[in-house]
Design a protein that fits this description.
The complex is a heterotetramer of chains A (359), B (219), C (136) and D (420). With 359 residues, chain A is an alpha/beta fold. Helices cover 42% and strands 10% of the residues of chain A. Chain A has a 5-stranded parallel sheet. Chain A has a two-stranded antiparallel ribbon with strand order 4-8. In chain A, strands 5-6 form a two-stranded antiparallel ribbon. Classes of the chains: A alpha/beta (359), B mainly alpha (219), C alpha+beta (136), D mainly alpha (420).
Chain lengths: 359, 219, 136, 420
């Protein structure tokens, strides 16, 4: 339809240096070597538009909000401009039958080639009746759309791992995309919401290298999820020095000390917040004084209190007192039995005579 | 079960069960052992300076004259790994936090790098002790399954804790969960194995000191 | 109870101190400068990928000092490419349109890539010049 | 006759107490006790590790007095103690343990191993697993009054000689004396000089004393074989005599286990505290020395070392008296590294010297090498000790290794150099 991206950009008044600068930043965020920015810029400049279908399921639209309200609407927007977003309920002007038609047209025209983006978990309870679009359950829609997709990108913790809908007791029977789709490459971009640049980074990678980025064992791009928050945290030195904020308003908190004791889940959370930050690099949860909730990890909602340190018991001990009583009881019981046995042995004692020394 | 669920289990129900069994076991065993009682010594006591149960409780922490030379590995290795374990368990920040959560007491921690170094030294000492157990005829002769087992049960928490912080082999979450689980196994095993010497050695030293102190011998 | 009766105690935020992570970077830079001299290969350190506190960055900046050249680029927010007191070592900061820092590098190069004009752009420039000449 | 395994197990059930439980639970198999045991250090055989000598006792404790042990026994994880096993252990409990208690001194978790050996012997004795030598000694002591089968007329005969040699009358059965003096058969037979020494010293100090014709024997094979009932029979003779003669104090002879029997086990055997004091002869001598009564006419010049008998020093608590006394009479006393409570056993205590099997004697000879080394390292030709049993064992050792070292009894040495 259109020519290479750089021309599109040029028509919009985006200079090559602007694009180079953007690619340098993107490469930095993807933990690619600083020199990769230029290669990326050149590849992307020449890339063509792939068709993308975005399906929202059991979700809160937070992920879409995160992407569309990202700090730099122009650049992220431009990346979206380089794709043909053929179906996105929240963003598309069409509604009802027209929208459904657009979806089916896109699926038919680009069969086997389109990228499928999913946000939200898929409820399986009540035959999927908890979430339906146009009278069809999410499960059916997903299966149909996934069948013709080149790859699936699960955006947000719900699509990636089931997220909050799946939290105990999971009333809707929510599952993740990877629970249902087994025969397509899936990229998980968890987070509640995910960082916008991760999304664009994955697209950029797809456009630059024609493939999906390298993934970890949970299907997440290693470049963004390879390190824990803790490892990249600027407060990490305080952890190593044993300097911890004990409450949210103590001297330690003011000094910017480590929030581990206040329940920060940074050590077990893989995400890029510590390096990419949020709101245009303004800040991120730990920098604003709150520990990491671990939102990009599976079942983070059920991982014990957000405000309890990782090394502290997740729940108050329930058995301790009872166990102590049982233990004492067992001890006393054995003790009584022992006394009886010893006293019996004493009572049965026959005074030894010389004859008793021989067999 | 995924990593985080595993970790949450070890931090929740797992810890609950382990601490429960530990408390149950410790109380049961202590009562079982110490209510066996002993006869009063009717001989007129001889009083001598330094001869008492309490003296021996402390004195036995140092090698008697000549013994260090006879068995340097046992003493030096033993000191290093016992002190190392104590430093790691009682002066590592996350451990202090756990203790604070369980019993409400807290104190300053040592830097994590120092704890990491201590863990390496402790593990080295434990490996040397293991080699000594394999090499020395007396130790090998005395060793039963329990000796090898308790060595492993003590070693694994140190190893997993250290590997977790160094990001070796497994992702931190899994390693941390394994670390907590292995520490829980240690808690469960402790009251029912020779590891219980951590409790009974005070009683043993006291009895020894008292029985011999009655005769005026500081042992 | 009115809102005013809640006393507000404003505490200025404390500056996180030095972590000790910055000094090793100087050694790395030395290596990179040597490589530039020997092979001509440019390189860069991505500062946002490292656990550095603002104090660490200030320390580093202070150590490296200010050189003769400063380049300002207006492209979707300001970017500054300032040579440090060590020629060949450039402190590169990219801002977005809101003025926030989006990425920050220390580049080791004779001239940072971004400053150089791209041949395609130069071609466009030459076309523009031709147009100007033809209008003479 | 009537010794059975059941009786043995029963006896062990009776004697197992909280200290034993605590000791077994504390053992970490570190093997350090072996380093303190001369039977291990001189043979290098791990089976002589002190704590291993108690394995059957440990199992009885575990199976009878711990919940887990009971369960283990029920499901067959813990084998019951058998006669064959105890038979095998006899060598470990008697031949290769002199109850010297050095292991109890070094155990890092504080186990009093010798305390357990003493208790274990209660079970060994009544299950019939005792060496013949100790059994016969016990029999002779109970039946005739002393381990060597010595009767009063023989003793009276020795006393007559003493009176002839010294010109001093040795009082017998004198009521109201301050001291009841006990002897050991070995002194009566092998070292009558001891009796002469005592007579001289008491005379010099002006202290009244007496012997008892029905309680002259201080040794107690009952505690060596490990049977409290028989030990009680033997010790009761002394208690009865002391009470009948209304003495204030009973003087234990040099003999080590005799002191242990009367001083420390005695009241516990008869089940009540004594109304009299039990004093070891060295304690008395040291008291006299401090009072200035024990003046020497001259001193022994030969360089010498002291052998501290285990049952008197390490296990008996007579820690301070020996050194000042030896310094009183010897000019060149050389303190050795492992002295006083750390001294190494002669290898014949705890009844071991009464075992005359070939293996036991060979083992004792091997174990004696540690004493030999001590003597050689000190570079002396004279050793002084104060226990009749040690003396016999050491003499045997000297013979075995053909050493020309002189062995002296401390009391006699003092008496010999006593100012007239």
């Amino acid at each position: 339809m259109q020519g290479p991206l750089i021309d599109t950009l040029a028509r919009r008044g985006v200079t090559r240096r602007t694009f180079l600068k953007y690619c340098a930043t993107l490469a930095s965020m993807m933990a690619l070597p600083p020199t990769a920015g230029r290669a990326m810029a050149e590849a992307m400049a020449a890339a063509r538009r792939p068709s993308v279908i975005w399906l929202p399921f059991q979700e809160c639209t937070g992920c879409t909000e995160s992407i569309t309200r990202s700090h730099s609407p122009t650049i992220e927007g431009m990346i979206f401009d380089m794709i043909s977003l053929d179906y996105q309920e929240t963003l598309m002007a069409a509604a009802g039958h027209q929208a459904e038609e657009a979806l089916h047209t896109a699926m038919k025209d680009n069969a086997g080639k389109y990228l499928l983006i999913v946000d939200g978990s898929i409820p399986l309870g009540q035959d999927g009746a908890y979430s339906c679009i146009g009278g069809r359950s999410n499960v059916d829609i997903l299966k149909e759309a996934a069948a013709g997709a080149a790859a699936v990108i699960a955006v947000g913790s719900c699509a990636s791992f089931g997220g909050i809908p799946k939290a105990n007791p999971n009333p809707t029977g929510a599952v993740s995309v990877s629970d249902l789709v087994k025969d397509k490459p899936i990229v998980n971009i968890p987070g509640c919401p995910p960082i916008p640049v991760v999304m664009t980074g994955v697209l950029a990678h797809y456009l630059t290298f024609g493939s999906l980025p390298e993934l970890d064992d949970k299907g997440r791009p290693k470049s963004f999820y390879g390190d824990t928050i803790h490892d990249r945290c600027y407060r990490r030195p305080f952890y190593d020095q044993g300097k911890f904020a004990k409450t949210f308003d103590d001297e330690g908190a003011r000094q910017g000390w480590c929030l581990f004791e206040l329940g920060c889940k940074g050590p077990v959370t893989h995400n890029a917040c510590a390096t990419v930050k949020w709101n245009g690099g303004t800040s991120w949860p730990v920098e604003s004084g709150h520990g990491c909730l671990g939102c990009s990890e599976p079942d983070f909602w059920d991982g014990g209190s957000f405000y309890k340190a990782l090394s502290a018991p997740a729940d108050p001990l329930k058995f301790a007192a009872a166990a102590a009583v049982v233990g004492a009881g067992a001890g006393v019981a054995v003790s009584v039995a022992n006394r009886v046995k010893k006293n019996t042995a004493k009572a049965m004692h026959e005074t030894t005579t010389l004859a008793d020394l021989e067999k | 079960m995924n990593d985080l669920q595993f970790l949450t289990w070890t931090r929740g129900p797992g810890l609950d069960i382990a601490v429960g069994i530990f408390l149950l076991g410790v109380l049961w065993r202590l009562i079982e052992i110490y209510t066996l009682g002993r006869k009063k010594d009717l001989a007129a006591p001889r009083h001598a300076a330094g001869a008492s149960g309490l003296h021996t409780v402390f004195r036995r922490s140092l090698p008697p004259p000549g013994m260090l030379k006879r068995s340097p590995v046992s003493y030096i290795g033993g000191y290093i790994f016992h002190i190392g374990l104590a430093i790691i368990v009682f002066l590592g920040a996350p451990h202090i936090l756990l203790i604070e959560n369980l019993v409400g007491l807290s104190w300053p921690a040592l830097p994590s790098q120092f704890i990491g170094l201590t863990a390496v030294v402790t593990m080295a000492a434990m490996v040397v002790m293991l080699a000594d157990r394999i090499n020395k005829p007396v130790k090998r002769f005395l060793s039963t399954f329990e000796d090898w087992f308790t060595w492993a049960v003590t070693f694994v928490p140190v190893l997993t804790g250290w590997m977790a912080t160094q990001h070796l082999l497994l992702p931190y979450t899994q390693m941390l969960a394994l670390h907590i689980l292995s520490a829980e196994v240690l808690l469960v095993v402790l009251p029912f194995s020779k590891l219980f010497h951590g409790f009974t050695l005070f009683g043993s030293r006291w009895y020894n000191g008292r029985v011999n102190g009655h005769k005026g011998v500081p042992v | 109870m009115s809102l005013d009766s809640i006393s507000i105690h404003v505490v200025p935020p404390g500056e996180p101190g030095l972590t000790g992570n910055a000094p090793p970077l100087l050694r790395e830079l030395l290596e990179m400068v040597r490589r530039l001299l020997e092979t001509g290969e440019p390189s860069a350190i991505d500062l946002s990928a490292l656990p550095l506190t603002p104090a660490d960055l200030d320390w580093l900046r202070d150590k490296l000092g200010t050189g003769e050249i400063g380049v300002t680029l207006q492209a979707n927010g300001e970017s500054t490419l300032n040579e440090t007191a060590c020629p060949g070592v450039w402190w590169v900061t990219h801002h977005n349109e809101q003025g926030a820092v989006t990425s920050q590098f220390i580049e080791v190069a004779f001239v940072p890539d971004l400053v150089k004009a791209h041949p395609q752009d130069v071609e466009i420039g030459s076309g523009y010049l031709e147009l100007l000449v033809s209008d003479l | 006759m009537s010794a059975t395994l059941e009786k043995g197990i029963h006896a062990l059930k009776e004697v197992i107490d909280a200290p034993i439980a605590s000791y077994f639970e504390s053992c970490v198999h570190c093997g350090l006790c072996a380093e303190a045991c001369l039977f291990y250090t001189e043979t290098g055989d791990p089976k002589y590790t002190p704590i291993h000598k108690l394995e059957p006792l440990r199992r009885v404790y575990e199976q009878e007095y711990t919940l887990l042990g009971r369960l283990k026994k029920m499901v067959g994880l813990s084998k019951p103690v058998t006669d064959a096993e105890l038979d095998q252990w006899q060598e470990l409990v008697y031949d290769s343990c002199t109850m010297c208690g050095r292991c109890s001194l070094v155990c890092p978790v504080g186990n009093d191993i010798v305390y357990m050996v003493r208790k274990f012997r209660e079970g060994m004795a009544v299950s019939g697993h005792v060496p013949d030598g100790i059994r016969s000694a016990t029999k002779r002591t109970v039946e005739t009054g002393g381990p060597m089968g010595l009767k009063w007329p023989a003793v009276a005969n020795v006393l007559k000689h003493v009176q002839e040699n010294t010109g001093l009358t040795v009082p017998v059965d004198k009521e109201g004396a301050e001291y009841l003096v006990l002897l050991s058969s070995m002194e009566i037979v092998n070292y009558p000089e001891y009796i002469e020494a005592i007579a001289k010293i008491f005379k010099k100090a002006g202290i009244s004393y007496t012997l008892a014709s029905d309680a002259y024997e201080a040794t107690n094979a009952g505690i060596q074989i490990g049977n409290s009932d028989l030990a009680k029979v033997i010790v009761s003779r002394i208690v009865d005599a002391a009470e009948r003669l209304k003495v204030k104090k009973v003087l234990s002879p040099e003999c080590g286990h005799a002191y242990m029997a009367i001083r420390w086990e005695g009241p516990n055997l008869v089940g009540r505290p004594f109304g009299f004091e039990v004093v070891h002869v060295l304690e008395l001598l040291d008291e006299l020395r401090q009072k200035g009564v024990l003046k020497m006419k001259d001193k022994l010049k030969d360089p010498l070392i002291l052998h501290d008998p285990c049952q008197i020093v390490r296990r008996g608590g007579v820690l301070q008296a020996p050194e000042p006394l030896i310094q009183q009479v010897a000019e060149n006393y050389i303190p050795i590294a492992d002295k006083q409570k750390l001294n190494w056993c002669c290898g014949g205590g705890g009844g071991a010297s009464a075992i005359h099997t070939e293996e036991a004697e060979a083992l004792r000879a091997k174990a004696f090498r540690i004493k030999k080394r001590q003597i050689e390292e000190a570079g002396v030709n004279t050793m002084v000790t104060f226990c009749a049993n040690c003396r016999i064992t050491i003499e045997e050792g000297f013979d075995h290794y053909e050493m020309n070292t002189k062995l002296l009894g401390l009391t006699e040495l003092l008496a010999e150099h006593l100012e007239d």
